[in-house]
Amino acid sequence: MSSAPHPSRVSPQVPSQVSPPEFAVTASGPHAVTGVEVIALPVLTGADGPLLGPGAADVGDLLGVDLLAVLEADRATGKVGQVTALPVPLGSPQDADLRQVLLVGLGEASATDFRRAGATLARAVQDRSVVATTIPAVEPSVGLEPFVVGAVLGSFGFAWRSAPPEHVPVQRVVLAELDDADRPAVARAVAVGGASWRARTLASLPSNLKNPPWLAEHAASLAADAGLEVRVWDEAELAAGGFGGIVGVGQASATPPRLIRLDYTPRKASRRTPTVVLVGKGITFDTGGLSIKPGEAMVNMKRDMTGGGVVMSVLAALADVGCPVRVVGLVPAAENAVGGNALRPGDVLRHYGGRTTEVTNTDAEGRLVMADAIAYAVAELSPAAVVDVATLTGAIKVALGQQVGGLFASSDALAATLLASGERSGEPLWRFPLAAAYEEKIASRVADADNAGGGPGAITAALFLQHFTGGVPWAHLDIASVGDAPADGYEWSKGPTGFGARLLLDWLGSDDPLAGLAR
Ligand code: BES
Ligand code: MN
Ligand code: ZN
């Protein structure tokens, strides 16, 4: 008998996507760089009006233009987000290719201002070939990394059309008036921006392509490129290994579940080098299961693997940020589908390690798969800390809106560290309590816990997970609030955000990520 694949199993081919710009560093001023289509100069908000930053005097002289007068004519103040464009139709005496000078607001030149100026510039120079800029030269120690991250993420795009993309990112950004000593910071920022970019792309892919086996194959190819070890459990190995949560959630799907493990070992590791475990929710589509979601609530559920995509992207970038600790990334991947073999309300699951859960709502599936992975981490990997990232509850979105992520932590030191990384990297978190008073909400009459005890929904979900952490310092990022951006805004593009990649790389790329934590 012939075995033609069922049409729904024929994966479409993703067209090639736009890439982030390349970055170059030069000590020269922007007026002296040739082959540049756009020169972008910073404008700061001064007490007596806007101030032009480095390189502006030379550019003004070269073109014979009073750039301050240009700002005044445009009523520009130097506020972040402002761009004043000066056309240069015939090029400059130095560079026949020059077409435009952009005066870009940098506000008070805080790290956030630099990130936003980078993203603003990226949007202003899309479809251009080369832009030279002195914006980060205003204060490289504060601004270089955030500027580059902003310029990468402001360039992000994803499309699956028959025609080529309407707009493409600028090909090259020349960072002028910097030193060779600034190159490592650029490389680091490119890695951080690239990790967020990758996480956004993964969350953007539709679920007719991105099923659990596809995600596992993608992880294996990432691992090969980044020098990580990889192990994947298939559905039979998951059943044999006792991963009842992952198996249960995945059992109704035509594409079976997987558990993905990626291991990063720092170059200078010794036997005493501690291990951090990152766990990312990898639900490749969430219908809700038999407790099915209404249509509108299902529309964006291809991105219910955002946490898993963030963990994979972070693992792939750890070497580039010089992470000094071992990191294991775990992604429990399953499609929460409906079918004759679906989990039913009332079913009881046995998780890795033996704890049982009564499934009163099949739409509270994230915690079921996360529990197995956390229990495995604690039992097998002797972690110094476990951090999980999950689009876990609609309740966190009600509480925080779409600009702040939810943080729960069993360790004040870990919470403080992650809050600081969130602030620094532009992915802010707000800490919620693991209030023991609500434990009774997740009590079950038949099992160790009920998976959907009710409100407060984000807190009861976190309490459910905490039972699997075995007292290891643990933090839980509920990113259901911030997984999707409602509109373009600075470094955010409408749609999947990859929220968490920047803050985790800020943390794990620091000199001592476990400082202050009991070991
Ligand atoms: N994936 C959803 C959470 C979600 C909601 C993510 C909105 C992004 C945007 C999760 O699996 C879910 O369905 N949670 C339920 C839990 C409830 C049934 C206890 C929820 O939050 O409604
Ligand atoms: Mn759900
Ligand atoms: Zn979900």
**From the coordinates shown, what is the CATH architecture of the largest domain?**
3-Layer(aba) Sandwich
CATH topology of the largest domain: the name is Aminopeptidase
- The number of domains: 2
Helix content: 25-40%
Give an overview in words.
- Pfam families: Peptidase_M17, Peptidase_M17_N.
- Presumably involved in the processing and regular turnover of intracellular proteins. Catalyzes the removal of unsubstituted N-terminal amino acids from various peptides.
- Its main location: cytoplasm.
- With 519 residues, the chain is of the alpha/beta class.
- The protein has 2 domains: 157 residues, Leucine Aminopeptidase, subunit E, domain 1; 312 residues, Zn peptidases (Aminopeptidase, 3-Layer(aba) Sandwich), CATH 3.40.630.
- The chain is 32% helix and 19% strand.
- Strands 8, 9, 10, 11, 12, 15, 16, 17 and 19 form a 9-stranded mixed β-sheet that branches.
- It is elongated, with a radius of gyration of 25 Å.
- The model has no long low-confidence stretch (mean pLDDT 96).
- The site of manganese (II) ion has 4 residues, from loops.
- The site of ligand BES has 17 residues, from helix 12.
